[in-house]
Every structure is written in C-alpha cells, then in structure tokens.
Amino acid sequence: MPGKKQINRRSLLAAAGASVVFPLWRLAAQPTARQPLVVDAQVHIWSGGKPTPAQRQEPFPEALLSAEMAATGVQRAILVPPSWEPRGNDVALEAARAHPDRFAVMGLIDIAKPQNRELFTTWRQQPGMLGMRLFLAAPKTAALVSDGSVNWLWEHAEAAGVPLMVHAGGLLASIAAVAARHPNLKLCIDSLGAQPRTTDAEAFADLPKLLALAKMPNVSVKAECLPMMSTEPYPYRNIHPYVRQVFDVFGPERLFWGSDLTRLKVPYRQALTLFTEELAWLTDHDRELILGRAVSNWAGWPVPA
C-alpha cells in the first residue's frame, strides 16, 4: 500500500525500548495477589494516511504495537481505528482476527449519515468488533449531537446492544440527557470528560458534570492518555486528586485505564505505572478491575480464566 513502511528489526527493538464521600463498594473490595490482566482501553494502529499533529507521524502497525505491549507488560488492547486511516476499520479488524487473544476493536462510524443505522444490527457480528468509538468534540459533530440530529444513533445502539465509547469534551450535559433517555445504552466517557488539548486544571473544568453522571449506572469513564493532561513531570501529582474524585464516585468497575499510546510523549510504561505504583489509595482488587477486567466485562470481551 502507498505510504506503508517496511517493519524491520531495528524498528521493533526501538519500540520495546481531593476525594468525595467514601463509597460503600470500597468496604467490600477484597485484595488479590494475582497478576492483574492489563488491557489498554485505547490504542490506534494505522497503515497510511496523514495523522493529526498530536500523533506519531509514521505508520504504526500491529507489529510495533505488539512489541511495545510486550515490553511494557500489556496483554491486550482495544484498537480504535483513527480517522485518517484510508482503510477505515479494516486494519484494526484484521489485527483482531489474527490475534483474537490480544486485540479487539471499537470501530468508527460516520454519524452524519443516518443511513448508517442499518449497520447496527450486524455490527457486533463482525469477528473482533466490540462496539463503536465516537469523537464528538469536533464542532460539526458536536452540532449534530446538540440539535438532536443523531438521536437515531443512541436509539439503534441501545436496541442492538452496541457499547459506545465517546469523546464528549464540552458535551457532557447532552450526554447526560442521552444516558437518562436510554438507560440500557452502555456509554463510556473518554479522557475523564476533558476537552481536547487541555491540561492541568483546565482539563478538569467540567469535572463536576462528569461526577454527576456517576448516578447513572449505564455510564462509565475511560482514563486514557493522562500523562498528556499534566504539565508536571512523572508521576503527574497535580492530576491525582482529579483521578481520585472520579474513582470515588464511579468505582473500579466503571473506570477503565488506557494509554492512547501514539499520543504519548513519555514512555508507555509511565502511563501504566501511574496506576500500578503511584496511586497508593488503590487496592490490588481496584487495580485488577481498572487495568483490564472492568473494560473487558463492559465491552463483552471474555476474560481469560
């Protein structure tokens, strides 16, 4: 394919290189000594196209991702096809079909086309496909959500049992209304509800709106790419209180770790050790859920015995 890079040995070697009220579920959490299953809840791979400036600029195929996962101790990853990939969902689905124990997919759909409602009935019948991921923060897409033009989307996703991961920065009030109207629709809010390209306190300006969504049991939260939401060096202590507030209201069953690896400007391992080593208030039981079992259960990706 034009633009696709040959993957060589050198490339593979380089790739390996204030809380709220104490909730009742914490009283029942039991520590566990077993090694947690680590599932990265958001990673992109692509073979061509022009990535956005925030991403790595070279193609990032499955082989490079697998090498980085192995070096970091990540067993599984949910692939989110990027908007610039000319083959759409196919590259991710091919990786998931080749390695079903390692990869699954939250695919893309053009929500500006109401005729795509026909895709929902067979969406999860595609081998490796778990659900859909929607980037709603772009102005045109946000307008479709705000004016109700995509109400068909929520209705069909709920009816077909298709989980949705949504980047909804700036639209949390609209998403709250959607979640209330569709109580059987599984919604996961990306980036702890932050708007794109924001850091520190600005990134968490809408945190009260996010915390309010915790009362709806059909809403979960993804904590991906957290290192890029802090201007401080590792371990990014200035954002710990925000993560703690989200954890305290959503609990470990509805909080999913992810990296958004190709956006990271720091080592992959730091995105993981932030949760495994630095957030001392997490129990082993909490980490086991947040690092992979919770998102696997939510998306219907069977967990290894």
Task: Indicate the topology.
Elements: H1 9-16, H2 25-28, E1 39-43, H3 62-72, E2 76-79, H4 90-98, E3 103-107, H5 120-123, E4 129-135, H6 139-146, H7 151-160, E5 164-167, H8 172-181, E6 187-189, H9 200-203, H10 207-212, E7 219-224, H11 240-250, E8 255-258, H12 268-278, H13 284-299
Parallel strand pairs: 1-2, 2-3, 3-4, 4-5, 5-6, 6-7, 7-8
Helix pairs in contact: 1-3
Helix residue percentage: 25-40%
Strand order of the largest sheet: 1-2-3-4-5-6-7-8
What is the beta-strand fraction?
A: 5-15%
Count of helices? 13
- What is the name of the CATH architecture? Alpha-Beta Barrel
The tally of structural domains comes to 1
Q: Give the structural class.
A: alpha/beta
- Termini gap: 39 Å
